[in-house]
Write a structure and sequence with these properties.
Layout (H helix, E strand, L loop, with lengths): L1 E10 L6 E11 L4 E5 L6 H9 L6 E6 L2 E2 L5 H11 E4 L11 H11 L4 H14 L15 H13 L5 E5 L7 H18 L2 E5 L3 H6 L2 E6 L2 E7 L2
Parallel strand pairs: 3-8, 3-9, 6-7, 7-8
Antiparallel strand pairs: 1-2, 1-4, 4-5, 9-10
Helix pairs in contact: 3-4, 3-5, 5-6
The structure holds adenosine-5'-diphosphate and magnesium ion (MG).
């Protein structure tokens, strides 16, 4: 379970100060699918970045199964992230000089999984995701939807406990976006992955267990869906 207590993030100083998060408190159960909605600039990306340890909150507490995450060193946060978390970004963030296969291998390399097993796993997930014939293509040789599927394969290949996704269908046409959502859902059912997705996409929000609405750095609405 993830527990967040009174999380604040303040960027800048003096007159230029921006309160991007203003006291976010929240609990996320294992295996839960949470959608986060909110207007542009409301703090959604900041919240994901703070929860995943990419950015440090100015104040507040974050616990993963009781582990005091917010006060870990950067190195320990990085290790924790590599082991337990996966990321899907709006702009895919694939490494352009690496092939689809090599991009997906990265998280396994970081975890020092031996090459044979890593290759096997990367290949299997890319096949599952419908890219069996494109393993050795570079991102520039793939469509937007294909790139996003590679990014999803990379986020999931090490079976993380938590996947953070920041507008994963934001730059895709609706049909391709639908495919991306399906893949995320399938993986979630198979591995009981906790899924936290920032989105404007109604189709994603409809399928979540819980929808949180954030406005001006605060959660202003919370709906549980059956
Ligand atoms: P969202 O993802 O909901 O669009 P963000 O979390 O990106 O919103 O941004 C929340 C607020 O914090 C915005 O006002 C934004 O301009 C500000 N902000 C985000 N990142 C930074 C930064 N690195 N430095 C200063 N201000 C930032
Ligand atoms: Mg954002």
């Amino acid at each position: 379970m993830i527990e967040v207590k009174d999380l604040w993030k303040i960027y800048g100083t003096g007159a230029k100060q921006v309160e991007a998060l203003r006291g976010v408190t929240l609990k996320i159960e294992d295996g839960e699918f949470i959608a986060i909605l909110g207007p542009s600039g409301s703090g959604k990306t900041t919240l994901l970045n703070c929860l995943s340890g990419i950015d440090s909150p100015s104040r507040g507490e974050i616990f993963f199964d009781g582990l005091v995450f917010h006060s870990l060193s950067e190195e320990k946060k990085t290790q924790f992230r590599a082991r337990y978390m996966g990321f899907v970004f709006q702009f895919f963030n694939l490494i352009p000089v690496l092939t689809a296969m090599e991009n997906v291998l990265l998280p396994l390399k970081i975890l020092r999984i031996n090459h044979g097993e890593a290759t096997e796993r990367a290949k299997r997930i890319l096949e599952r995701i419908g890219l069996a014939d494109k393993l050795h293509r570079f991102p520039s040789e793939l469509s937007g939807g294909e790139q996003q599927r590679v990014a999803i394969a990379r986020a999931l290949v090490h079976n993380p406990k938590i996947v953070w996704a920041d507008e994963p269908t934001g730059n895709l046409d609706s049909e391709t976006g639908e495919g991306v959502i399906k893949v995320l859902e399938e993986m979630r059912f198979e591995h009981r992955t906790t899924l936290v997705v920032v989105t404007h996409d109604e189709r994603i929000a409809k399928r979540a267990d819980r929808v949180l609405t954030i406005r001006d750095g605060k959660i202003v609405k919370e709906e549980r869906q059956s």
